[in-house]
Amino acid sequence: MLFRNRFLLLLALAALLAFVSLSLQFFHLIPVSTPKNGMSSKSRKRIMPDPVTEPPVTDPVYEALLYCNIPSVAERSMEGHAPHHFKLVSVHVFIRHGDRYPLYVIPKTKRPEIDCTLVANRKPYHPKLEAFVSHMSKGSGASFESPLNSLPLYPNHPLCEMGELTQTGVVQHLQNGQLLRDIYLKKHKLLPNDWSADQLYLETTGKSRTLQSGLALLYGFLPDFDWKKIYFRHQPSALFCSGSCYCPVRNQYLEKEQRRQYLLRLKNSQLEKTYGEMAKIVDVPTKQLRAANPIDSMLCHFCHNVSFPCTRNGCVDMEHFKVIKTHQIEDERERREKKLYLGYSVLGAHPILNQTIGRMQRATEGRKEELFALYSAHDVTLSPVLSALGLSEARFPRFAARLIFELWQDRGKPSEHSVRILYNGVDVTFHTSFCQDHHKRSPKPMCPLENLVRFVKRDMFVALGGSGTNYYDACHREEF
Q1: Where is this protein found (predicted)?
Q2: Which of 59, 317, 331, 379 is flagged as catalytic?
Q3: Domains recognised in the chain with CATH numbers
Q4: Best label site of 160, 204, 463, 475, fewest CB within 10 Å?
Q5: Model's pTM, two decimal places?
Q6: What's the rounded Cα separation, in Å, for the pair 73 and 444?
Q7: What does the pLDDT look like over 408-458, one tens digit per residue?
Q8: Is 327 designated active site?
Q9: Any catalytic annotation for residue 379?
């Protein structure tokens, strides 16, 4: 009894101390040392903030950090979540390549010094990085569709080449692959241990960064895979439209969308002032600086925590970066409102969505081919697909973004199949145009496959406002 009373007394005292401590902090009675200008003397040259929670209003620095997608702890995700009476049938993965070196440089400035060799003990680190390099070195005789067979299988330049995948980019997709392995292979047994080549469908554009990103994800998903079972197909178009790329109306939507972007830029006096200031710093005409797309290079500095460039006329700084990034966010907001990009997206995304539902329908018939499909692509691939699906609030595809279509079978009713759509691990199925209202009318936890099929075959063209109810007619309607 005495021991119990002492224990209760100690517990009450601990609770009282905790309450007093929290109260003092809440009322700012405990002093907190704050460096001048909110920055320590050791980190003045560093430009990487450390946000913990999402700000209540759109913050350009926070948005840029999300875009960088710096590899850290393993993320939580909703892939593979379903009631126990559902069986996973097939998975279709669309990825944006990982972190890359910029495609453009700021005129008359030194290129950011980023090392594109893969070093196992350098951050960002992944336990499979060294094994990945070793495995890639054995794949020179692998079978790739031309011209992929002429591309390097992993980045390997001490100073990155333009557009080259970085170590960060490789680690991002090794993490993606390992996450999908834990869910789809270990938990759901999507592929048998003796999986065959025809159970995978792999496709990539002809850029080294997309091929290497696809291989990194694949290695995380299927460590030490048999090279004889791997065949990457080449896709010439960033829209993955294969033999259905000719679409005059899609191009007209794109031209109108680009005109909208141009007019919005002209209206932004703060943006023009910023471009003018930066042009003076690097001593080039403002028009030349704008054409060099400085945000691409600035994002590389930002994501890799490298100081922005300086000249004898001054330095490009964080305020310049914030103005340009803020304009990008405003542009995305207006893009959703004006709907021109939606028209482009519907016609741009239809071919690849049509391919995907074709694979799903074959899987529902019991066919075991192409159970796992991987498209290694670009932001200009994923963004139209997101828009076409009606996911207007989805953020612009970050480095190593992933969009996943899951096909499920009801074990109790084997003829019934459902789909889930996930974006960066978040279940967005009931935010899509084809399944927004389904959960209001049905108790079923997933969206019927026929909803997606009907949407791709017919309903998605309603957004264009014309009379066309199929891809060919929508692409060639004259009244546009």
Answers
A1: Golgi apparatus membrane
A2: 379
A3: 64-243+340-390+418-429 (3.40.50), 248-338 (no CATH)
A4: 463
A5: 0.87
A6: 33
A7: 999 999 999 999 999 999 999 999 999 988 767 777 789 999 999 999 999
A8: no
A9: yes
